[in-house]
Amino acid sequence: MSTPPPPPPSPSSSSNDSRTTSTEAVTGIIISTVIGVVIIAVAYFIIRYCIIRLRLRSSNSSNEEEQVTARMGTIRSPSSIAVTTMNSRIGTEPVEKFLKEIMKEKPMRFTPQDLVDFTQNYGKVLGSGGFGIVYKGQFLNGLPMAVKVLNSNMNKRAEEQFMAEVGTIGRTYHINLVKLYGFCFDKTVNALVYEYMENGSLDKYLFEDGNHKIEWGKLHEIAIGTAKGIRYLHEECQQKIVHYDIKPANVLLAANFTPKVADFGLAKFCDRERSFETFTGGRGTPGYAAPELWLPISVTHKCDVYSFGMLLFEILGRRRNLELMGAAAVATGEQSQEEVEWFPKLVWERFEKGEMRSIVAACGIGEKEKEKAERVCQVALWCVQYQPEARPTMGRVVRMLEGEEEIERPPNPFQYMTPFPQSSSSSWTMTMSTATADSSSRERGKAGDESEITLLGIERI
Ligand SMILES: Nc1ncnc2c1ncn2[C@@H]1O[C@H](COP(=O)(O)OP(=O)(O)OP(=O)(O)O)[C@@H](O)[C@H]1O
Ligand SMILES: [Mg+2]
Questions:
Q1: In CATH, what class is 203-455?
Q2: Is 148 known as a binding-site position?
Q3: Buried-most residue among 38, 78, 305, 327 (CB within 10 A)?
Q4: Compositional bias of type Low complexity: which residue ranges (predicted)?
């Protein structure tokens, strides 16, 4: 007996299978849609949460942001974003912190009209110097600035250097350097826009009578801060910068009297109008300029060390190195012979005789500061050494001033100098004999074995 063949698959079972398959497919689609929606929803909530947190964090500065938006209309600069960052932070974080944040930014380019707006049509003059006139101004958010409008006698080469240097200056950041916010370079106006320094320049506190007195301990801190600023220019910043014009007028004081070196990088591209007129092709300011700036000797960063030494003497004595009313003042008793004398030389003479204490006491510096003052005295004598190589680096100057490095006894910085009787009792003569002068000086002294040069650096002008 044969077994019946298996029944052919019924049409109903085949349709059941295909129904099951399509049900699974639909379920799959639904599940993946649900998962997708859940993922999107979670991502949405995470993003929203982050945005809310960010908004909460910056809510304190919303007012400033509004002001910035308003100001953006006046600055047509591609780097105005830097200002946005800067301004939105002000008020919530210390100024130093936000300056650090913008340090990587290039300085902004302003138009002449921007400067007119900032300075309210150049309404307030802060002062003037060899490079031009300085005006007070402010950004729309109230951040003050100092606008230095440069003398208009730039030649083509100087103009090119201006652009190159502005880039360099704008990228230097140090607590002891005045920050460059931006510049204006135009056919009609060349100007630099700096951070505003509330307490003006150091010369006011050293030389002016009246209410501008700072106690000597603070002056010592100012000396160290200034030295650190110059050290940064010489040794630490990307492109080394020689200042060429270190002097109390170029040390500006912030609201808390933090010293900041101003005008670095300017000497290269600016023709000065006043301070340089006694020099032929030289740089610097009489009284502070190193000998090599007016002699055909190669000039290095050590010329700044010399000028800093002169500044140290003035900090020590809280007087100009040459305070001269003339021989008549001595005759009438208005001034003593010592006061008329050039202070650095006077300091050396006392130091040589082992009377450093008496200088310190004569400068009115109290017991508490005596040790620091004696250090300042010796460091100053090292800085003004005639030979640039004999002067310390600014790094060593800082260490010596801070008492981290022992100070060797300085040699006589003024051995090439003898008093020179002229009509003005302030004139000295530097005598360089071929036996003692360095090789380049010797070359310069071809005219004779011994040559005399009036030391313009200590002439009163
Ligand atoms: N950033 C600033 N903030 C506040 N005041 C400033 C600023 N820059 C300059 N000044 C003021 O303007 C005055 C003139 O400065 P300026 O640099 O033009 O001349 P100077 O320092 O006397 O000579 P030099 O041309 O050799 O630098 C300073 O003495 C100071 O009082
Ligand atoms: Mg200056």
A1: mainly alpha
A2: yes
A3: 305
A4: 423-439
